[in-house]
Amino acid sequence: MAKVKIAATADVSADKVLKTSANGQSLIVAKVGDKYCAIANKCPHFGLPLAKGKFENGVITCPFHGSKFEVCTGKSTEWVDSFVGIPMPDFAKKAIAMGKAPTDVKSFTVSQEGSDLFVEV
Ligand code: FES
Fold first, then answer.
1. Which residue of 6, 52, 62, 112 has the smallest Cβ count within 10 Å?
2. According to its UniProt record, which protein family does this protein belong to (predicted)?
3. What CATH number does the domain located at 3-120 have?
């Protein structure tokens, strides 16, 4: 495991996520309350990027099929809810889920040294 700088605190605001990387792995970083959090920028549904999703109250919504994840834990709070922002009926949700069960996103513990943020990867 290596400690890798992912951002400066000034780069991370409370109202949006910051796309960054650590050792070639794409991450998103967010500030939730006083805490800095990071998860993989990879939706566990189809492996598509989360960074352009809506971010609100510590939760990011996948821009493709609406799955929601807590950015401080990676926990899945909703699974395949829509198609590019358009709500779907339950039968369509099941079809688009393609049998994949709700899965959490990999999360990373963020440490702060002065004005820099780090993760262990
Ligand atoms: S790729 Fe994210 S919910 Fe489908």
1. 112
2. Belongs to the bacterial ring-hydroxylating dioxygenase ferredoxin component family.
3. 2.102.10.10
